[in-house]
Amino acid sequence: MSTQPRKQRKFIYKAPLHIRHKLMSVTLAEELREQYSRRSLPVKKGDTVKVMRGDFKDHEGKVEKVDLKNYRVMIEGMSVQKPDGNKVYHSVHPSNLMIIELDMEDNERNDIVERKG
C-alpha cells in the first residue's frame, strides 16, 4: 500500500460504498469502549453523538443523516440559518464526533459488536 498523500486522497475520493461506510467510524465513549472492547464503530442513523471540535463543540444529539458521498454526519439541533431565512443542517466530519449511545436495534450491528477483533 502506498504512503503517497495523492494516492491516499485518491483512495478516499474513489472508495466504494462498503469501504466508505468503514471510513465513517466514530470514537466510542469510555464506558462503551469498556463494554464492547472496541475503540470505534461506524456511525449510524439513530446513534447519540457528541461534537468534540468546531463551532458546535460539546453539542449532543441524535444522528439524523449519514452522507457517505461527502463523508459528513447531520445531527439534530445543529442547524445554521442561511441569509434567505432557510435553516440548513451543519454537517460534521465523523473524526470530530464521539458516540455516547449506540442504536442497537439492528441485528447486523449486534453481530459487528459481538465479533471478536
From TrEMBL:
Residue ranges of domain KOW in the record? 42-69
Cited SUPFAM superfamilies? Translation proteins SH3-like domain
The UniProt keyword set, sorted, is: Ribonucleoprotein, Ribosomal protein, RNA-binding, rRNA-binding
Give GO MF terms, alphabetically.
Answer: rRNA binding; structural constituent of ribosome
Query: Gene3D superfamilies in the record, alphabetically?
Result: 2.30.30.30
Kindly state one GO CC term assigned in the UniProt record.
large ribosomal subunit
BP terms from Gene Ontology: translation
One short Pfam name that applies is Ribosomal_L26
Write out the transmembrane intervals.
Answer: none
Does the record carry Cell division as a key word? no
The record's InterPro entries line, in alphabetical order, gives:
KOW, Rib_uL2_dom2, Ribosomal_uL24_euk/arc, Ribosomal_uL24_KOW, Translation_prot_SH3-like_sf
The family annotation for this protein states: Belongs to the universal ribosomal protein uL24 family.
Alphabetized HAMAP family for the sequence: Ribosomal_uL24_A (MF_01326_A)
Question: Assembly and partners?
Answer: Part of the 50S ribosomal subunit.
Free-text function comment from the UniProt entry? Located at the polypeptide exit tunnel on the outside of the subunit. One of two assembly initiator proteins, it binds directly to the 5'-end of the 23S rRNA, where it nucleates assembly of the 50S subunit.
Spell out the protein name for this chain.
Large ribosomal subunit protein uL24
Question: Which organism is this protein's natural source?
Answer: Methanobacterium spitsbergense
Lineage, uppermost ranks: Archaea, Methanobacteriati, Methanobacteriota, Methanomada group, Methanobacteria
Q: Which gene encodes it?
A: rplX
